[in-house]
Specification:
Layout: E1 23-26, E2 43-46, H1 47-52, H2 56-72, H3 85-88, E3 94-96, E4 115-117, H4 127-139, H5 147-156, H6 165-174
Antiparallel strand pairs: 1-2, 3-4
Helix pairs in contact: 4-5
Bound molecules: zinc ion.
């Protein structure tokens, strides 16, 4: 979700306008539209509406769980390398896997919140298995919404050519904190 300066924001729960100061933001915590928590996926809501919502505790638990996986997986899952622009070459080569399943017995569970550098997919031994599991989940009827379809096509699409050295050097000057 990209917030544009000056854009009006609306609460997902009551549909009324919400100021940034009174809003809470929830990122990819449940992209499966078949699940009750999906109402909070990539959503902006009033703090007040959230406080009164019956799913409040479940959302907080999910956020905590997802943040834990994301911080554990803040490197390329395949090689363990960091995800700097120099390593991924192009921002489109970074795949951030959203929350896939809350079922601990599902083989996809261990992939919740992982990050992948597309340039390393060809050497990933689990690639075929991972893709097959995603395709099966998408066809199972247990998943609703486009997020999974998008992830599958991102995994299958060609690697983007890396930025040139000259371009990277220019970016480094402009955004030094992105190149630690
Ligand atoms: Zn509201």
């Amino acid at each position: 979700m990209i917030l544009i300066e000056g854009q009006k924001l609306y609460c997902r729960l009551c549909n009324k306008e919400v100021n940034k100061e009174d809003a809470l933001f929830f990122y990819g915590i449940e992209p499966n539209e078949n699940k009750p928590l999906a109402i909070f996926n990539d959503a902006i809501v009033h703090k007040e509406c959230f406080e009164e919502h019956p799913l409040k505790q479940k959302v907080l638990d999910r956020m905590k769980e997802f943040e834990k996986y994301q911080s554990q997986n803040n490197v390329d899952y395949i090689t363990g390398e960091d995800l700097s622009l120099e390593n991924i070459g192009h921002p489109d080569n970074l795949i951030n896997v959203f929350y896939l399943t809350d079922d601990k017995n599902n083989p996809l569970y261990k992939y919740n919140g992982i990050s992948l550098n597309k340039r390393n997919l060809s050497k990933w031994k689990e690639y075929d298995k991972f893709l097959k599991l995603l395709i099966e989940l998408n066809a199972s009827g247990k998943w609703e919404g486009n997020a999974l379809k998008y992830l599958i096509s991102h995994l299958r699409s060609p690697i983007r050519a890396p930025f040139t050295k000259e371009f990277l050097n220019k970016m480094k000057e402009r955004y030094p904190d992105k190149f630690k």
